[in-house]
Design goal:
The chain is an alpha/beta fold and 181 residues long. The chain is built from three helices and six strands, in the order ααββββαββ.
């Protein structure tokens, strides 16, 4: 009889132990489900919207929306893909393409302070929101020259491009979806 009691205790212990582990794993899965209901892209979009709001408030700015009507009267917040940095004497410029589907392609070339350049050097992706004060707008027609087998030099019209120049007031990185996890 005592051997039977020991075996029953051992069996009961194992059943309770494995039930506890199984229940814990199931509960843990349910805890993380609510977070998984919103995708990473949704979280990034909410983060981007909050950063835009902060920049709008900080600089009393407007959001660039393909219209160049009011961009010289107030600071402007633009969603960009950073292309690089160039140095002209002691001046440092950030170049970027504006991420909007407009009739024309928009690029910015902004003179930046040392503080903004330090923020840029700490970014991990090339997606950023820029607060800028524009002072100049240049319309360009991009034409590419190509070589052909018959010896002629055909040209390809790449469309109209607008280059906005001015001063960079702030840069805020927007993490890309690929770098989110």
């Amino acid at each position: 009889m005592p051997k039977l009691v020991i075996k029953l205790r051992s069996l009961l212990f194992h059943v309770l132990f494995y039930s506890y582990i199984g229940f814990s794993l199931l509960s843990l899965e349910n805890c993380t489900k609510s977070r998984e209901d919103s995708s990473t892209a949704d979280e990034l979009l909410r983060n981007k919207e909050s950063v835009v709001k902060l920049l709008l408030q900080e600089f009393d700015a407007i959001v660039f929306d393909c219209s160049t009507q009011n961009i010289f009267s107030k600071p402007v917040v633009v969603d960009t893909t950073m292309l690089g940095v160039s140095i002209n004497g002691e001046d440092v410029f950030l170049s970027a393409q504006i991420n909007l589907s407009c009739a024309k392609r928009y690029f910015v070339k902004l003179k930046c302070s040392q503080e903004v350049l330090e923020q840029y050097s700490k970014t991990k992706s090339n997606n950023a929101l820029l607060a800028a004060r524009f002072t100049r707008m240049d319309n360009e027609k991009l034409v590419a020259e190509a070589d052909s087998l018959d010896g002629s030099d055909p040209t390809i019209n790449l469309g109209e491009t607008v280059i906005l120049s001015g001063e960079c007031l702030a840069i805020r990185e927007i993490p890309s979806v690929e770098n989110a996890d």
